[in-house]
Amino acid sequence: MGVSQHAQQTVGLITNQSTIGTEGYTFIYPINQANGYLINNCGELIHQWPDDQKYMAGAAAYITPEGHLLKTKRDRNALQDKIFAPGAGGTVELRDWDNQVIWSFTLNNEQYRLHHDIKLMPNGHVLMLVWEYKSKADCITAGRDSSYISDGKIYAERIIEFDPVSQSIVWEWNVWDHLIQDFDSTKSNYGDVGAHPEKIDINLNTAGSPGLPNADWMHINSMDYNPFTDQILISVPTFNELMIIDHSTTASQAKGPTGGLAGKGGDVIYRWGNPVNYRQGGLENQKLFFQHDTKWLIYDIPQNHPDFGKISIFNNRYTATTSIGVFIVPPWDMYQWSYTKTGTSYGPADYARVITHPEPFKQNSPITSVVQILPYNHLFMTAGNKGYCYELDSDNEVVWEYILPFKANGPVPQGTILLPNDNPIFSARRFPVNFPGFAGKDLGPKGFIELEPDSTYCARLVSNEEQESRQEKIYPNPVNNTLFIESASDELYQLFMVSGTLVKSGKLIPGENSIDVAELADGMYLFIAGERTQVLCILH
User: Fold this and answer.
1) DSSP characters over 202-248
2) Which end of the chain has a smaller Cβ tally under 10 Å, C or N?
């Protein structure tokens, strides 16, 4: 139960190191309502998209490049719902900056229900996740052991592509078309699970997952689209696994094992996190634990960035009390147009990067949560069940913190102490000041979300930092092909070998700069710019 006190800042803005943090705006979409909010780095309200309080978030929401709000929502009263589990949606709609509905699509009946995530595609279509009711008889026909159907049903998964212009579904993928099992030899999908990682074993997730009905078999909780490869990435937390499917198929090919650029139709072309699911490896090989927010790192960084093309993941239940953010490098072979295996399982063997909060308990969240890469190797993250949003700099220091000032469906006064699950959030995202959707918009402060705010708090934080200048940041180190430098001003740089030989020089401009070091030999170098001197290691 929330307790009101004014001894300290407990909700809204907590930390703002303005000379270090990334300039921009943060979008938040609290789970317990259907309102979207845009705040600045001082925690001031910049814009909002209010909705009727009879609705709740259906989980995901995003601001489009045009400045529109694409969001999910559901009726707060779930008593009439035939299909229900955490993350349930029902309606996807697009609203303009002035909160007028441009289009809306609803799917929530006895057979199908929208849930969790959505993805806007370059062609204006929207990918949506759909639960499909399967009876006990359907499950047995598909080869599921009847003792694993404790709810008497299963929610299978579909992905649909919705065209808002024609108001029609123009493509879809159905997991039921790509099953395998070795339990019932009388069924048509009987086979060797270990020999067919492209198929999904209908007898996975036999005992359900904490907090979910046993019927919620896969519980796909996030989805992303890669326009460079025309592929869809999904997170399957109940399997502790992510999967990639080919979107280049026709609707007919998506039902079968052939066709599309990858030649495998709608079968899985890559999976990672828990190879036990296709009978490879053991428990020691499991890397994902009820993960969320699996995203390709292709939207927020340039193509020459060292992390471009990797996959970011919020690994919620890494331990019983620890959540971590991770990056992985998918083994994509563009020449073979396939993901390569290491032996009999898909790599990589481990994470390329692990992200931990300096105070790990703050990052721990068994549900939801976000990890987003920012310029200068900063990260924006959330601990979803705490409504806690934060930014880490390249030295893994917290430079911005914000706690959602909500309990149930309404704002709370400053000084209120909130408990986990009082103010949960699924969708949050940091946007740069030059985001095209904000062009020409009124981005002036319009008060605060929390009640009884301390309007002087941010100014006091900033005044404490005025004597601190932004330091240049140089990354990565060791560096492979491209060195990135954040500069606060115009200045000259020089790169020397440790022997004293000058190998590169040039001029830096304010902001992010890149230097190609691919042709330099492996070894130690000295980078000098202004008053900054740093030893670099080049490794190819």
Assistant:
1) TT--SS--TTS-TT--S---EEEEETTTTEEEEEEGGGTEEEEEE-S
2) N
Please classify residue 39 by burial: count the beta carbons closer than 10 Å to its beta carbon, then call 0-12 exposed, 13-18 middle and 19+ buried.
buried
Contact 158, 174 (CB under 8 A): yes
User: What structural domains and CATH numbers belong to the chain?
Assistant: 12-463 (2.120.10.30), 473-538 (2.60.40.10)
Please, is 145 exposed, middle or buried when counting C-beta atoms within 10 Å of its C-beta (0-12, 13-18, 19+)?
A: middle
Q: Pairing state of beta strands 179-180 and 200-201? A: parallel
Contacts of 293 (CB under 8 A, 6+ apart): 222, 235, 312, 313, 314, 369, 370, 371
What type of residue is 23?
E
CA–CA distance, 134 with 141 (Å, rounded to integer): 10
Contacts of 277 (CB under 8 A, 6+ apart): 201, 204, 239, 241, 271
Amino acid at 337: W
How many angstroms separate the CA atoms of 489 and 294, rounded? 36
Tally of helices (H runs) and strands (E runs) in the chain: 3, 40
Report the SS3 class of residue 492: strand
Q: At 3, is the pLDDT very low, low, confident or very high (cuts 50, 70, 90)?
A: very low
The residues, any chain, with a CB within 8 Å of residue 59's CB and separated by 6 or more, are: 31, 72, 87, 89, 115, 116, 117, 221, 426, 427
447-482: b (≥16 Cβ within 10 Å) or e: ebbbeebbeebbeebeeeeeeeebebbbebeebeee
Q: Please tell me the distance from the alpha carbon of residue 485 to that of residue 103, in angstroms, as a whole number.
A: 43
Amino acid at 84: F
How many CA atoms are closer than 13 Å to the CA of 325, on its beta-carbon side? 27
Closest CA to 95 of 113, 78, 75, 72: 72
SS3 448: strand
Distance CA 384, CA 366 (A): 8
Distance CA 11, CA 13 (A): 6
CA distances from 362 to 231, 399, 421, 504 (A): 34, 14, 14, 43
Residue with tokens 């913190």: 401
Q: Angle CA(7)–CA(8)–CA(13) in degrees, nearest 5?
A: 155
Say how far apart CA 12 and CA 419 lie, in whole Å.
14
In angstroms, the CA 2 to CA 495 distance is 56
CA 159 – CA 113 distance, rounded (Å): 11
pLDDT above 50: residue 5 = no
Q: How far apart, in whole angstroms, are the C-alpha atoms of residue 490 and residue 509?
A: 5
Residues 157/178, Cβ–Cβ less than 8 Å: no
CA distance 245 to 459: 49
Predicted TM-score (pTM) of this structure: 0.86
| pLDDT tens digit sequence for 369-404 | 999 999 888 999 999 999 999 999 999 999 999 999
Residue pair 72/114 in contact (Cβ under 8 Å)? The answer is: yes
Q: Give the pLDDT band of residue 529 (cuts 50, 70, 90).
A: confident
Tens digit of each residue's pLDDT (9 = 90 or more) over 172-182 = 999 999 999 99
